Amino acid sequence: MNKPLASAIGHSACPHDCPSTCALDVEIGADGRIGRVRGAADNDYTAGVICAKVARYAERLYHPDRLTRPLQRIGEKGAGEWREIDWTDALDVVAERFLAAEQRYGSETVWPYFYAGTMGLIQRDGIKRLTHAKRYSNQFSTICTNMAWTGWMMGAGALRGADPREISVSDCVVLWGTNAVATQVNVMTHAAKARKTRGAKIVVVDIYDNATMAQADLALKLRPGTDAALACALMHIAFRDGTADRAYLERFTDDPAGLEAHLATRGPEWAAGITGLAAEEIEAFAALIGRTKKTFFRLGYGFTRQRNGTAAMHAALSVPAVYGHWQYEGGGAFHSNSGIFGIDASTSTGEALRDPSVRHLDQSRLGAILEGDRNALAGGPPVTAMLVQNTNPANVCPDQRRVVRGLKREDLFVAVHEQFMTDTAALADIVLPATMFVEHDDIYRGGGQSHILLGPKLVEPPLTVRTNHFVVEELAKRLGVANRPGFGRRERDLIDDLLARSGLERDTADLEAERWIDKAVAFKDAHFLNGFGFADGKFRFRPDWTGTPAPNRPPESIGALGRHEALPAFPDHVELTEPVDAAHPYKLATSPARQFLNSSFAETKGSRSREGAPVLMLHPEDAAREGLSEGAIVRIGNGRGEVRLPVTVTDKVKPGVLVHEGLWANSDFLDGEGINVLTGADAVAPYGGAAFHDTAVWLRS
Ligand SMILES: Nc1nc2c(c(=O)[nH]1)N[C@H]1C(S)=C(S)[C@@H](COP(=O)(O)OP(=O)(O)OC[C@H]3O[C@@H](n4cnc5c(=O)[nH]c(N)nc54)[C@H](O)[C@@H]3O)O[C@H]1N2
Ligand SMILES: Nc1nc2c(c(=O)[nH]1)N[C@H]1C(S)=C(S)[C@@H](COP(=O)(O)OP(=O)(O)OC[C@H]3O[C@@H](n4cnc5c(=O)[nH]c(N)nc54)[C@H](O)[C@@H]3O)O[C@H]1N2
Ligand code: SF4
Ligand SMILES: [Mo]
Questions:
Q1: How confident is the model at residue 550 (pLDDT cuts 50, 70, 90)?
Q2: CA distance 430 to 420
Q3: CA 595/CA 244 separation, integer angstroms
Q4: Is 586-700 in CATH node 1.10.1040.50?
Q5: In this protein, which residues make up the domain named 4Fe-4S Mo/W bis-MGD-type (predicted)?
Q6: What span, in angstroms and rounded, lies between the C-alpha atoms of 466 and 432?
Q7: Of 569, 546, 564, which is closest to residue 259 (Cα–Cα)?
Q8: Three-state SS string across 121-182, please?
Q9: H or E stretch including 495?
């Protein structure tokens, strides 16, 4: 490391899987340790504000339970008996087991499995270089963005939208299916500014009274999975009351007349019956956005984690197209900017080495895959060896019992590269200790905003802890592919290469000085005033559900996903959600906790003490009927399994709806199994994804 350790402030970017991707100022003491982490004041999206959990990062970095030595299992899988080994031996074992597996079943039996523990483009995605060089099975990444991105693409044809900084000049901010206070606090910074300086109204559409709902001027608490009905009624009222912008519709949309006719029967009373909202609430929402040209729809991921979530995203996105909000600064819609960056990381990801005939396996169907489901295996060999980086599937994946059973298979070899002894690492054969973001070089880009940011190495890691990049490179040497293109380079060289290939006209050192690059697109492109992302430039009210390319479109090899034939011709409520019935009378959503970031931070004292313990929110009426009081222990379950946890009785949830916040460690539950025991891994239409907030359960005391 050639940076002086005593520099007072180091500049970085938050590596976590959060739409905000904050620009960070990190205090570094003379002892080479980090202190407080702050949001960069001069980054106009971060605007000096970050969440409390990252501000306390020192707690995570210097955590006494942090992994520092490679470990090899000596007892049964999951028994918690390990011996320390050195790095060379650990990597030798991994390589030997990979080669042996390959010899027996062919290269596709090895599955490098990764996700978003770090969002750094080098440390997160470098594992693909090894995958391609060795022709190991590819991962089809479905766990997070699929439904949301696909639903957006079906309407807009491009993954971008109105600049989220425009929220601060909006007159009405609609936070739809995002608990922004908890999951992307910067949205609230800009919304609060609009409220303070312009008297902007804040509308929140969610299924429970979360921290964001508490900020709402108009709080709409609907039944899970009914957002498309609300969207239809908003559009029905626009056509009824003349607040639809007919000139805009004519110019920028595919079939306004067809939409109007389709919506004739989908008024507020119809939607009230489906959503559980009062017709007056829907009328009030429609009147507000009808008179407010600068209405900004910030569409989140939450409402898309339903089995009808793709259709719901498309329906909600259709609303500003009917009202014409897109034409105004501070108006329109935003979900993700992931389509604007034009980043070419192909050297690091080994794109040139990719063999298109190698199968993809669905990340979310890990349990079925490890249990040998032929369809999930895409007709190929069983998975008998894995390298897991940046993800904790034994905790975060749906259908957890199958995942855990699969990971415990005696004939499966698993190496987990981790910062902590997670639920997944605990089931591994080899555990490798990983660096944290301030200890390695990487580059990041926003999803919920428009910056590319550098996150250089600022402090030294513990002596025996290694980067993801190191593991990929060292395995490549042992697996005979170290001489292939893309290997043998340092992180900084790969970042230089990425910057050059992406046409950014800078190198790593330039970016280190500049700290970030703003890639925001021009107003007219962000607002689609030069046309939407289709050849005819028109927004699609009538999506081509399986014909429209989408960033998460599955590769052919994966076969059919989801019941696309059930998706609606025009925006509509579709009954694809998991049915509530006499045997499963409750609907469960598993929403994020403010102090955690997925399963990360569930290990830090600061976050744990603020979150308390895993609990189940239950409405007072339901509690009375079930004869339960505060703190009573219940079991909730369905065909996939059951978990035990205490209830908290609260009217924050609707009757019949249960909410469990946070990805607590499985061991935090009374029976040592986590909430994802209950969630399903069946693929959501049309391109797959996991419906984490759409689970029907029974409840017993
Ligand atoms: N029930 C339920 N389940 C869910 C969700 C939900 O809402 N409800 N949300 C889903 C969503 S949206 C997502 S994106 C997934 C997220 O699932 P994951 O990506 O698995 O979640 P994280 O906890 O962010 O990160 C996983 C691990 O990465 C490790 N890690 C961080 N940085 C590094 C690094 O540099 N190197 C290495 N080797 N490891 C690192 C962390 O220690 C952490 O244990 O979970 C999904 N699961
Ligand atoms: N503190 C914290 N921040 C996070 C995360 C975290 O775990 N904790 N996770 C990160 C990740 S990986 C992601 S992808 C983002 C996701 O962040 P968001 O975009 O906020 O999406 P979700 O957190 O999945 O859900 C948002 C809200 O949608 C609600 N919801 C569930 N079902 C429905 C429905 O049918 N309709 C409506 N209208 N709302 C519904 C949930 O209860 C929740 O309050 O957040 C990131 N930031
Ligand atoms: S988790 Fe999100 S809000 Fe918190 S610092 Fe990171 S990017 Fe910012
Ligand atoms: Mo996510």
A1: confident
A2: 13
A3: 41
A4: no
A5: 7-65
A6: 8
A7: 569
A8: HHHHHCHHHHHHHHCCCEEECCCCCHHHHHHHHHHHCCCCCCCHHHHHHCCEEEEECCCHHH
A9: helix 491-501
Mean pLDDT of the chain: 97
Tell how far the Cα of 74 is from the centroid of ligand 4, in angstroms: 34
Maximum Cα–Cα distance across the chain: 72
Radius of gyration over every alpha carbon of the chain, rounded to an integer in angstroms = 25
Average pLDDT value for residue range 11-36: 97
Ligand 2 proximity of 592 Cβ (cutoff 6 Å) = yes
| Cα three-residue angle 38-461-133, rounded to 5 degrees | 105
Q: Name residues with Cβ closer than 5 Å to ligand 4, which is an ion.
A: 144
Enter the CATH code of domain 71-141+342-438+459-484.
Answer: 3.40.50.740
Question: At 634, which amino acid appears?
Answer: V
Q: Which two tokens stand for residue 56?
A: 């306390």
Instruction: Name the class of domain 147-338+524-566.
Output: alpha beta
Tokens linked to 477: 């040497």
Q: Which sequence spans correspond to the domains of the chain? A: 6-61, 71-141+342-438+459-484, 147-338+524-566, 586-700
Yes or no: say if 625 and 689 are a contact pair by the CB < 8 Å rule.
no
50 lines ligand 3 (CB under 6 A): yes
> Looking at the predicted structure, is the pLDDT value of residue 4 above 70?
no
Query: Which one of the ligands is nearest to 118 CA?
Result: 1
Ligand 3 midpoint to CA 685 (Å)? 30
In the prediction, which pLDDT does 562 show? 67
The continuous run of DSSP H or E covering 12 comes out as: strand 9-13
pLDDT of res. 2: 45
CATH number of 6-61: 3.30.200.210
Sign of CA dihedral 82, 87, 90, 94: positive
